[in-house]
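ok so heres the complex, two chains, lmk if somethin looks off
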Amino acid sequence: MPKQTHEIRDPIHVFIRLTSEERKVVNSRPFQRLRHIHQLALTYLVYPGATHRRFEHSLGVMELAARIYDVVTNPEVVSDEIKSLLPELNDRDTVRYWCRVLRVAALCHDVGHLPFSHAAEKELLPDGWDHERLSRILIESPEMAALWNHMTPPLRVDDIVKLALGPKKARDLKFSVWETILSEVIVGDAVGADRIDYLLRDSHHAGVAYGRFDHYRLVDTLRILPSRRTSKGEQPAEPALGVEEGGIQSAEALLLARYLMYSQVYMHPIRRIYDIHLKDFLLEWLEGGRFPTDALGHLELTDNEVTSAMYSAAFDPRRPGHVHAKRLMCREHFKLLYQRHPDDLSKNLEAVDRVYEAINGRYGAENVRRDQYPPKGGLADFPVRVKDGRIASAMSMSETLRRLPPVVLDSVYINPGLVDEAKQWLDANRDMIITRKAEEGV
Amino acid sequence: MKRLERAALLSSLGRELIDKGSWCGETHLQKAVYLLQEVFTVPTAFDFVLYKFGPFSFELRDELGSMLADGLLELVPEQPYGPRLIPTERSGQLEKQFSKAVSEFYGPVSFCAQRLGSLGVAELEKLATALYVTKECGKDLKAKQRAKRLSELKPHIDSKDALDAIVEVDKLLKEVETKSVA
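and the predicted structre for the whole thing:
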């Protein structure tokens, strides 16, 4: 009898096991393409070890999502109240069906990523497009639909799309409470499998310890819980993914790891400016300055094609994108000149706008770049079941969660040849630039 | 509406909610903005989908995160519920800076705060989802049918509570029409 379960060795989860049906998904062209998409774009130019790909991350998300699912659907830990609110939990076939959907949705949640997992989707894709929409096109493509139809039982495409994208990105689809919870298991902002895997994996490959935390404990203590009550006698609100009180330190550690990884790795100023130079290159190199949005066009482009083109362009001034490719390949990147500062914000909330305009006006747009990353994901709040059985808000339980600084970035970069002069000029004029505009009113 | 102008309006809404006794957590602000936008067509331009506790905007969530980062809101933990989002002195200055927009929408802001200020999360969820269903199905559809739809979307809301919420929304919409609050 042929083998029905297959193992893949993994540096984070040791073994990732998958069924023969899931292996067909892994062997599909959309999934194999992820072998050629760097998880952290050009971060390897700063952290040389960070050359890992979306391929292994996606396998890791499947493994973790399935572990979480097994824990939160275990009849021994599901309360009667939750069983009555979520009938899906009471039928073994339904539980098994959704486990299969969850695993393939986790596998496919990133298949739409652009080369270098590029974040500048607004500039590099037509209006209304993002990588999640591309993921959806691939999940719904005839090649993948045939795989879903041949599974036992066949999987509904919309179910996979919902769990892979979540309510934020699949806005035309109506999510039941159950589907919302399962999508949170994969792409949830607080304790989703995607986040758990990328922190552990990126930390491992980048060679920084900040992203590590006790994810075994966290996964073991995850539960589907009724949300907190907010007034005496009020009925519990809808169920959500939460933790037992004993897991709150692990959840704190995850969210602290996220903050530290953002500060040290993802928001590293040189890594960020490389991303901007890459975007500038792509705008000139791509036909019409945009990535294709049809399935085949998307599948044909990986980091390999872009890297090869960049390498050629860097040493040939006649090729499109030469200036930007040279900055990347010859390490002639722009330098950090100014970044968001609390003192300046207290004088003018639009301080970075004013500085950027002033620097742009003085040195010219071709010599100046701005990098913005506003806070995303909201408050890290989720229900916690305390030892006496009551439900509390994680933020009311944890001083650590309340005090975690938001991840926010707003910076101005300048051509390396101008950095010394620009720094002197800005030091001499910064207060005037910021306060003058504030007094005039924005 | 520009970002800071919108932040000033959100700040004034938070202040009004607190004044009317609200806990003013994220859910309270989410549902109050939904009401402002959908009933009074205040141009805050957030996209709402059915998610946590009913209609929810991911863009509004990020905007509240930006306001926290900019020191316009302060996270104030209080037992036993989730944290409150309290407008700061800095946001008071912003409201003055954008006083025109704030006063232009004072009527709807005050009305929403008055109606929602005393409600907890579960009550807000029922009311906001009832409004969502009414917008989706049209208010000409019978209340019982809309209540059925509400319970389908939110199975933890029983049929009696769902019907009460639909009736409450109909009353609210009628009141807005007749009083011309906007």
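quick notes: The radius of gyration of chain B is 16 Å. thats all i got rn
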